[in-house]
Amino acid sequence: MAELGLIGGAKGRAGGLRRNGGARTLKRLARRFATSIVTLLAITLLVFVVLRTLPADPVAMLMPGNATEADMERVRALLGLDRSVLAQYAIWLGDALKGDFGRSIQHNTPVRVLIADALPVTLQIVTLSVGLGIFLGFSGGLLAFTWRGTPVEAGIEMGNGLAMAVPDFLWGIILILAVGVGLQWLPFIGLQSPSVTVPDITGFVLIDALLAGDPSAFLDVLRHLALPVFAIAMGLAPTVMRVFRSGLMEAYTEDYIASARLRGQSERQVLLRHGLKNAVIPTITLIGVQASMLFGGTLLIETIFGLPGIGAMMVTAIGGHDLPAIQALTFCYAVLVLATTIAVDVICLALDPRLRIKDQS
Amino acid sequence: MNSFVRRIEETDVTETVIGSRPQADGGTAQAPMLFEAADFSVRTGQTPILERVTLSIRKGEVLGIVGESGAGKSTLGKCIARALPRQFTTAGRLDVFGEDIGQMPASRHRALMGDRIAFVPQEPTSALNPVRRIGSLFGEHLTRLGVPKAEQQARMVAALSEVMLPDPEAVLNRYAFQLSGGMNQRIMIAMAFASRPDLVISDEATTALDMITQERTIVTLNDMRARYGCGVLFITHDLRLAGHFCDRVAVLRNGVVVEEGPAAQVLEAPQHPYSQGLKAATPRLDGPPHPLAAPSPKLRIPAQPAPIMAARGLAVRYGDPKSAGGQVEIMRDVDLQVEVAEFVGLIGRSGSGKSTIARILAGLQQPTEGDILLDGRVLGNSASDWQDRIASAQMVFQDPSSALNPRRRVWDIVTQAMVARGERLKSDRRRRAAELLADVGLDERLLDAYPRQMSGGQRQRVNIARALCVMPRLLIADEIVSGLDVSVQAQVIYLLLELRQRHDIALLMVSHDLSVLRQLCDRVVVMDQGAIVEAGPTQQVLDAPQHEATRALIAAAPPDDLSKTWPRGTEWDSNDKTPE
């Protein structure tokens, strides 16, 4: 790459400038990180207070039906539930920072253990969905753009409009009915077939299957994941496609595109070298904005497809008034969403020098 | 790829005249022909952009194209780049290096671009991709020219030194937005000359730069030109600049070359009245201020008067003739025509059908009977007829506050018509918007303003500028000054007259204000109850009205003479109609 060679050859003032740019970037990221921590604390506090105002008494749920009022008071004091909400939050936060999220009321197991089992399932689904969603969105956008002004574009646009009108959980149901029940091509319940066992190495079943050198198990898990992943991806892809295509259209009104053509570059080169990168930047930003929706989508999708992820866990925890689990899962979701937005920020910084380097002119 | 190597060797051998300017006479007369336009015309619909242009550039020669906004200066460059919007059609020959640009296959054309033909753009900073370093962009260009990767760094540093950029290594590692406009323009020049082009096209390359940067850029361009002996097509609106830099200058007006010759002759002693007018309108840097005069008003009279748009036997009726109530007749037997550069006033009381005529001519309403003719041809309902129509006649609406989209910026509003015909490039649109604002006497700083940030008069100017975007030959205006203050009204009247002088524009103005029409129009047409009752030269009709309706209109206007009794206390007459 010519660009890399040039960076290597950079000397003098330009080098200094790059360092300044680096400092600016680091500062920006540090600020982003700090605000994320504050946001995280605010979210957990909010959820903590809201859960405590619910008409659900955790002690009553813990104690057997014949417990006396005195017993209840004793347990309440034991658990610290007689203290102020803020004091309780301080205790929770202190424990949470140590990795202790308390015990699940429903399962009487440490919440940490439950989450450790469920989180990889969700992460797996989300990663694959985002990957597939971006792939579908980008290829659709590119196709519509290269065939702009033709019936191909009109067709893609129409399909896009339809896909956009269907929410991801509805995709899930449609896919189950059509591909799962109707055509019976793919399984749609659980993470793997009952006959298949995968050793628990990383917790990520797909990776574990590979590590165990079991391609049939890998394929089995993949087949189980196909429908939910596709459902979530279809929730993301239409928006990505739309923004990517309008990003391309926008970029193509810029002078540098005309200028590249005037230098004799072919349309393909113009697209790959000048149009694409400029169009990808707003698209990546959009994906960051959609992150919360994306993770939120797992609640329904995991429930629909019977996947033991944190989404399904959240749904059962809410149903069972399992306050420690709800609290910990909220925290978990908040961390995931914030981490995604930071990651998107980092990618944008890497792609767009205008964000890294202050305008000099 | 090989051509690059070949020509480097060529220039190494022939490089004899470093720093000296090849003379326009003698020296280049035998030089090979680089660029030749012969009877070359460009049109969009019926509107001519370039009319039978015949120009040429020989090796080592600089040809300047000067003219006012909308004269078609940039179109030549666009034709060479084959970047004309779809609706544009061409006729005649446009040759580069003896080959017809329009006929050569796309691959052949692309091979010439950036290699034997190089472009220097108007806005260098936006012409460089903001997310890639200068070195990456320049390197990519060198790769296309066949320079091996290993040699690129050295070549780029040498090229940037040649255009007097300090610290070339550092520059290569920057992004365009980190550099000044002048530096970026020198980068563009360095890139343009990297291929040792035979023909360089510079379209307002220094317009966006300050005076000092402009001088340096011209020095660079001149130096490179002398060093490599290429021909230059130099498009500019700056006559002085053209006079200094060009060997020969062509003056373009409304797409026609009105004068062409050695730069000194054309600019110092212009022969054509229009070039004389341009010279008179250019302020001088030294000596006492001379009165600036726009090109002579006489120019507005075209060689032969020809109707642009005409209505023949228009009738408008509402309702079903078979129904009980029968039909309501709004208009009958209307014949009307507007000629090139003619201002026609349409008067009549409310409901007389004058706005309906305006809407029918603009294509916003269909007549029940009758034809609309454009350049003597009956307009049908086809899409191409519609394109011709909107390219020729534009409507200016009455209320600018509601006619302008409040969410769009001025530059965007006035150039919407460009988007519609495929001219999407932002810098082109902004440049055209700046020209249009200048045309209607607005400051360029208003380009990024929103309508609500402007005064009513400014908004009406924007409204007019928008109609002017496609260079229409006819403006159809419905009461466009009635809502304005007298002072603003005077400005708009003056503006319309100025536009006619500059662009031969015709006007059909619907108004109830007789004094405005007297000031503005050559001819007035009086309507009453859906029919034309009187028409003729303004003076004649208003001073000696023949028809009762005309007399009534004139009598109803408050007279200038305050001693006369007004209002006269007439009663409402019986045939009052509700306005349509």
Automatic annotation (TrEMBL), chain A:
Domain ABC transmembrane type-1: 119-348
Localisation: Cell membrane
Gene3D superfamilies recorded: MetI-like
UniProt superkingdom: Bacteria
CDD domains: TM_PBP2 (cd06261)
GO biological processes: transmembrane transport
Keywords carried by this UniProt record: Cell membrane, Membrane, Transmembrane, Transmembrane helix, Transport
Topology within the bilayer: Multi-pass membrane protein
InterPro entries according to UniProt: BPD_transp_1_N, MetI-like, MetI-like_sf
Gene Ontology cellular-component terms listed: plasma membrane
Major location (coarse): membrane
Transmembrane segments: 33-54, 121-147, 168-186, 225-244, 299-319, 325-351
Similarity comment: Belongs to the binding-protein-dependent transport system permease family.
This protein's name: ABC transporter permease subunit
From TrEMBL, chain B:
Topology class, membrane: Peripheral membrane protein
Broad class of the protein's primary localization: membrane
GO molecular function: ATP binding; ATP hydrolysis activity
Positions of the ABC transporter domain: 35-279, 316-554
Pfam families linked to this entry: ABC_tran, oligo_HPY
Sequence similarity: Belongs to the ABC transporter superfamily.
Annotated stretches, region: Disordered: 556-580
Top-level taxonomic group: Bacteria
Record keywords, A-Z: ATP-binding, Nucleotide-binding, Transport
Biased composition, class Basic and acidic residues, residue ranges: 570-580
Swiss-Prot/TrEMBL GO biological process terms: peptide transport; transmembrane transport
Subcellular location: Cell inner membrane
A single Gene Ontology CC term: plasma membrane
High-level lineage: Bacteria, Pseudomonadati, Pseudomonadota, Alphaproteobacteria, Rhodobacterales
UniProt-recorded name of the protein: Nickel ABC transporter ATP-binding protein NikE
